[in-house]
Design a protein that fits this description.
It contains 10 helices and 2 strands. The protein is mostly helical. A two-stranded antiparallel ribbon has the order 1-2. The termini are far apart.
Amino acid sequence: MAFEIKDIDETRAPLLDHLIELRTRLVRSVFALLIGFGICFYFADPILGYLVQPLKEAFPEGEGQLIFTKLPEIFFVELKVGLFAGFMVSFPIIANQLWAFVAPGLYANEKKAFLPFLVATPVLFIGGAALAYYVVMPTAFRFFLGFGGEAGGLSIQALPTAGDYLSLVMQFILAFGITFLLPVLLMLLHRAGIVTRAQLAGARRYVIVGVVALAAIVTPPDPGSQVILAVPLLVLFEGSLLLMRVQERTMKRAAKNSDTAKPEKGEPGNIASGDDSSVTAD
């Protein structure tokens, strides 16, 4: 029998449909990002003015300034500001498109399980970013500026460039925002059965070392920023363990209720019960 190649492989149709839908979702996400970028680039100066407030407050009154050493530097700074803020603004739409692509392949109970994580993700990210902006950056900038003064009869002054400052601010915000998603990651791993609460509790000492090392890597090299990041992460880790305990109790209670809801042998509704009370004699 000769090998036959069909014109259209019908088994690939669902895959093609998924790829087309994925392309549609990606196009919408990129379109939302471009719109957000355009709006935020138009307001780049006010946004940059908001981002420089922690540095302004760290400087003595009337002495703070940002410089640029290359002619196109400020233009690229405003581009970065527009892209960074545009992504933040368009993220809810991007997340919605991602959820719309994934949700049809999930059962109802799986959707209910994922919804709390979808709500917790932006809340935790915003919480970490707010901690970085309102607490960590002013503390770190005052620490760095404290090294100014005189040495050998020469004045040592801080003259940060706009590009370096923006990179540092983005590093702070992204580092704190992303690391604050640790509970979401742990709860997902626990929900999937990859890790258990007992395993994480037993590895607590290693988690503490890992959190301190992570804080040292993602923050600038000053002890204050590392401590301010490490302490909330450890609190979030302990909170995740408590939520895992609640989740395990809920799952056990649901499994127990499902077992008790099953009909016992001899109860009505069981064909194999052997109960002939409903059979009438002729």
